[in-house]
Amino acid sequence: GPLVPSLTAFVVCSLLEEHCPSYVDPTFTAAMESRLDLIASGAADQTGVGYLAEYYEGDRGLAGVVAHMEQTVLPDDAKRARIPSPKGGGTDGGKDEVAVFVGPWGPYVRLAADPASPAAPLPSGMAADLSSLTPGALRAVLDGHGQNGTLLGQHRTDGTCGSWSGGKG
Predict the structure, then answer these.
(1) In this structure, are residues 6 and 13 in contact, taking their beta carbons and an 8 Å threshold?
(2) Could you count the other beta carbons within 10 Å of the beta carbon of residue 28?
(3) Is there a contact between 134 and 87 (Cβ–Cβ < 8 Å)?
(4) Sign of CA dihedral 103, 106, 109, 110
(5) Which residues, 6 or more positions from 14, have their beta carbon under 8 angstroms from its beta carbon?
(6) pLDDT tens digit string along 109-134?
(7) Are 89 and 66 spatial neighbours (Cβ–Cβ below 8 Å)?
(8) In whole angstroms, what is the distance from residue 169 CA to residue 163 CA?
């Protein structure tokens, strides 16, 4: 089957594109590959220590970039999965926008603008099928969690939602 990026991959890629654009720039990676090829062939510093020191500690080295990010990146931005909409539709970006975040216990949804708002776990089937992460589906997960338990998913043909409420029955 096709390779599908994980939600964590979207979080990391968004952070790099926004805060470390040179590290994901094709020109940068091509130059890095060329230098590493020279090291591997013996045409340059054979140990690669000089290059690694420059890469890590240089003027725009990785150590400085990471230190800057730790001071400037908000925790929510570091956890939010910015997923492109497969149907071209986006979200309004307003106070009622529901967003996907990745946390230590897995992906979850909550209102994007309110870190204190209630959150709901993202059903594993939805996390595995990124095309199902539409604004309406995310809203259904969040609304269903508060009222009818945890949303398990949507029926393939009729779109009805199935949910589970824990407890004794």
Answers:
(1) no
(2) 13
(3) yes
(4) negative
(5) 80, 81, 82
(6) 998 888 888 888 888 888 888 888 88
(7) no
(8) 15
d(CA 168, CA 144): 19
Residues 16-24: contacts with CB under 8 Å, at least 24 apart: 18/77, 19/65, 19/68, 19/69, 19/72, 19/73, 20/65, 20/69, 22/60, 23/62, 23/65
Place of tokens 């939602």: 161
Judge whether 146 and 102 are in contact, CB under 8 Å.
no
| Residue with tokens 């939600």, as numbered in its chain | 7
DSSP state of 152: E
> What is residue 167's DSSP assignment?
S
User: Would you list the DSSP string of 67-131?
Assistant: HHHHHHS-HHHHHEE-PPPTTS-----STT-EEEEEETTEEEEEETT-TTS--EEPPHHHHH-GG
Query: pTM of the full predicted structure?
Result: 0.67
